[in-house]
Write a structure and sequence with these properties.
Blueprint lengths: L2 E3 L20 E7 L2 E7 L4 E6 L6 E7 L18 E4 L10 H13 L7 E6 L9 E6 L3 E7 L14 E7 L18 E7 L4 E6 L4 E6 L6 E7 H5 L8 H7 L12 E3 L5 E8 L13 H5 L9 H9 L13 E3 L2 E4 L5 E4 L8 E6 L3 E6 L16 E6 L8 E4 L8 E2 L1 E2 L3 H4 L6 E4 L2 E4 L6 H11 L2 E4 L4 E6 L3 H8 L12 E7 L5 E11 L2 E6 L3 H13 L4 E4 L4 E7 L3 H6 L2 E3 L14 E6 L6 E5 L8 E7 L3 H12 L5 E2 L2 H10 L36 H10 L2 E8 L10 E4 L2 E12 L4 E9 L8 E6 L5 E8 L14
Parallel strand pairs: 16-23, 25-27, 28-39
Antiparallel strand pairs: 1-8, 2-10, 3-9, 4-8, 4-10, 5-7, 5-9, 6-7, 11-22, 12-21, 13-20, 13-22, 14-17, 14-21, 15-16, 16-20, 18-19, 23-24, 26-27, 28-34, 29-32, 29-33, 30-31, 31-32, 34-38, 35-36, 36-37, 37-38, 40-43, 40-45, 41-42, 41-44, 42-43, 44-45
Helix pairs in contact: 7-12, 8-9
């Protein structure tokens, strides 16, 4: 028997406080709808499969190591409907092409026959979230786990869901957490760095270097010298001060961000990927004196290890080498002291660099076992280099929860169109979005929005499909607006709060049907929050992420209606675009009855007449082309995130991490109108705290007009004399108002229109910018344009 069912009750609380799954040796993965994965398992391993959102069936197939047919197969799970036949080439509508190609490759490499394999189907009669099944593995082999599903429609049918896979190894030495991840491509060099050692290796300009933390929480110093410099008797290594002087940012982004320079100001390396997000780029590699002053003379150290490796290049030894210390969790405190803690890196995390000149490189595995820097237990580092011919996307990674897989910054489904118009991208919510476009520029895009029409990629917005008989109850509990008043076809702008009253996010809620809602926001955590509330209240409701399935494009400006009228078709039972009111939407198609399906809403974030168009990811390029063609006669222009900041500040529209965070309530954020404490009699998350905060709150959102043309920055403090009275949240120069304007959070006693305040620069007192309190919005205060 390949796999046996086991009691899962002892795994109901996997995470001890402060200890993550990977620290317990539990391997975790997620399988999304229409995808599949294969896992090597060994006799005695324990396997758990958990429905994250629910409503997603899962097929489990066990194959022995030699690929033979298991005469017993997989024991049918009690309470399930039976087995299904898992065959390649059939049912392809239930899997993505990438998933099927991956499976065929897996079978081909092992010479397995895929036909007629018997698989167990899970969750078919158990659609609720949180359901789990546990197994023990009786013999070595492979588990193939698939999540078949129809593709989601723009209306939300067949919304995707995920299943969680947890593997606990009977023999920790066989854990994949201890094994190297698969190479990103065919390596040129595969170099292991045992703990407490260093290696040297040469790379050519254009080559890629992947530095991998094998077991997690292990620091690795990186340094390099140009071969050109060594040939001339000069030691041109990565120089921290030069790099900091030339660069304003330390994290990877398209273009010139996150490059490292030598003292000649020659670029040496560019960061391409980073799955951790926390490194030391300003300190020294550990050195002998550091250990000596702790009372450990003779302790092995990275500087001496680097010196030894560079001796062959006739490089003079140093008492302390400057280095980029990957994975080192260091920071500077408010008093300018250097502090550190355990590294953030997990098993298999890495940094990917691209060499910009020929170099000899040094990589260490730090030997520090006297403090938390390496988790008190130094482990190994691994280095791989790849040819300049390879192509790797530029990405940084984020994790939604401590146990989640790192999610790399991804390209928008409109990237094939925007990349032909610009190379200036920024990471906007984990998606590369254009900051500005060639031959337009931020100011040009701004004027196009105010005077003509623009189109903007907003695919970074998170979308969640909330369905089920208790969907209305769930959303009414989760957000501040009265959802019961929302009609089908209506959209409402609202806030989602913690029980403390602090904001999780703001967003728009679409009522797609009586029991169907779509929540559009900026934070992935909203999905986690909704599922937690549903579980707490025992609601029969499902929350499924649809961000990967839905692309959306904002079409904004005075001529947005005329442009879209040319191409948007609606059925007789839907509101035509010409008649679509503010905060309403229609199910539509592109051009006609057989056209691409769309959802078109009269919503926006610019203060102008505008719409948002939602489509399936695969249809995004065609939708972009159609809107660009329809708007050509009206002077349509692409619109980037830099121009968006200008128009949304003018319109007094708030943004997360600027006007609000989880300590700021909607009243302080300037969107108190989203909290109808008197008319919404139902309870909702944070209601008691918000009642108290409204009565006792000290701050409110206000507008500022600055005297002069100097810009304030987010976080600059507001003063009345010596007293601090508020903080600047956003600032821009307004072309239409011909003034510098800002949004601020200020004490109510100082928030009267016409009051004079000062913005502190330098230390807050040596330099002050004078400003005057004004009402918001700055532009079109009666919002006539958006209602036109």
């Amino acid at each position: 028997m390949g796999i046996h069912t086991v009691n899962t009750s002892r795994w109901k609380h996997l995470v001890e406080p402060g200890i993550s799954l990977w620290q317990q040796g539990i391997e975790r993965d997620e399988i999304a709808s229409r995808s599949l994965s294969a896992y090597q398992v060994f006799a005695g391993d324990t396997l758990h499969i958990v429905a994250i959102e629910g409503g997603q069936v899962c097929d489990l197939l066990f194959l022995t190591s030699d690929g033979r047919r298991d005469s017993h197969g997989i024991k049918e799970i009690e309470g399930q409907s039976g087995t299904v036949v898992f065959e390649l080439g059939t049912g392809t509508q239930f899997y993505s092409g990438e998933a099927l190609a991956s499976l065929r490759s897996f079978m081909k490499r092992r010479k397995y026959d895929p036909v007629g394999r018997s698989a167990v189907r899970l969750f078919e009669d158990q659609p609720l979230p949180g359901v789990r099944h546990g197994f023990t593995v009786a013999e070595d082999g492979y588990c193939l786990i698939a999540a078949p599903s129809m593709a989601m429609s723009v209306a939300g049918d067949h919304a995707p869901a995920r299943v969680e896979v947890l593997i606990k190894r009977a023999n920790p030495e066989k854990s994949l957490l201890r094994k190297l991840p698969d190479p990103l491509a065919d390596p040129l060099q595969d170099i292991h760095v045992p703990h407490s050692s260093a290696v040297s290796y040469e790379v050519k300009a254009g080559d890629f270097i992947q530095i991998i933390d094998v077991s997690g929480r292990q620091c690795s110093d990186f340094q390099a010298l140009t071969l050109r410099g060594l040939d001339r008797g000069r030691e041109l290594d990565i120089h921290h001060t030069t790099t900091r002087s030339l660069m304003g940012a330390a994290y990877p982004a398209p273009g010139l961000h996150s490059k490292f320079f030598n003292v000649d100001q020659e670029p040496m390396f560019e960061v391409i990927r980073d799955t951790v997000g926390r490194h030391d780029t300003f300190g020294l590699a550990c050195f002998a004196r550091f250990y000596e002053e702790l009372g450990y003379p003779g302790h092995v150290n990275c500087t001496d290890n680097i010196n030894q490796r560079l001796a062959a290049y006739d490089v003079a030894p140093r008492a302390g080498w400057e280095a980029v210390n990957f994975f080192f969790n260091s920071r500077t405190e408010h008093d300018n002291a250097l502090s550190f803690d355990e590294a953030w890196s997990r098993p298999g995390d890495y940094v990917l660099l691209r060499a910009l000149t020929d170099c000899v490189c040094l990589s260490t595995s730090c030997p520090n076992d006297l403090d938390p820097a390496n988790g008190w237990n130094p482990t190994d580092i691994h280095v791989r280099t790849y040819s300049a011919k390879e192509i790797f996307s530029k990405s940084v990674a984020v994790r939604m929860t401590p146990e989640a897989k790192p999610t790399l910054t991804r390209q928008s489904p409109f990237h094939s169109r925007t990349s032909a118009l610009t190379g200036d991208y920024s990471d906007f919510g984990g998606v590369w979005l254009p900051a500005s476009y060639r031959n337009h520029g931020t100011v040009g895009e701004y004027h196009a929005c105010r005077e003509k029409v623009v189109m903007m990629d907003l695919s970074s917005l998170r979308k969640f499909e909330v369905t089920g008989p208790d969907a209305e109850k769930l959303m009414n509990l989760a957000v501040t607006r009265n959802v019961r008043k929302l009609s089908v076809g209506e959209v409402v702008y609202t806030a989602m709060c913690h029980e403390t009253g602090g904001m999780i996010d703001d967003g728009t809620l679409f009522r797609m049907g009586e029991d169907l809602f779509r929540w559009v926001c900026a934070e992935d955590y909203c999905g986690v929050r909704l599922r937690e509330l549903a579980a707490r209240e025992n609601f029969k409701a499902w929350v499924k992420p649809s961000t990967e399935q839905l692309a959306n494009l904002a079409v904004q400006g005075p001529f947005s209606r005329k442009a879209l009228e040319k191409i948007i078709w609606t059925r007789d039972c839907e509101t035509p675009l010409a008649d679509l009111g503010c905060f309403r939407f229609s199910i539509a198609r592109l051009h006609g009855f057989d056209g691409i399906p769309l959802v078109v809403s009269r919503t926006g974030y610019t203060g102008e007449l505008g719409y948002e168009v939602f489509c399936h990811h695969a249809d995004a390029p065609a939708v972009w082309d159609a809107i660009a063609e329809a708007g050509a006669e009206f002077g349509i222009a692409p619109f980037g995130t830099d121009a968006l900041q200008m128009v949304r500040i003018e319109a007094g529209l708030v943004m997360g991490h600027y006007e609000f965070d989880d300590t700021i309530d909607p009243f302080e954020a300037g969107i108190g109108f989203t909290v109808p404490l008197k008319s919404k009699t139902d309870d909702f998350a944070g209601k008691l705290a918000l009642q108290r905060r409204k009565e006792q709150g000290r701050f409110k959102l206000a507008g500022l007009e600055l005297d002069g043309n100097e810009l304030a920055e987010h976080g600059d403090l507001l003063f009345s004399g010596r007293a601090q009275i508020g903080v600047v949240t956003s600032c821009t120069r307004s072309p239409v108002l011909k003034k510098t304007i800002a949004l601020c959070r200020i004490e109510k006693d100082y928030a009267a229109a016409g009051s004079c305040v000062e913005i502190g620069k330098l230390d807050g007192h040596q330099k002050r910018l004078k400003a005057c309190i004004v009402p918001v919005p700055f532009y079109d205060p009666e919002r006539k344009r958006v209602r036109s």
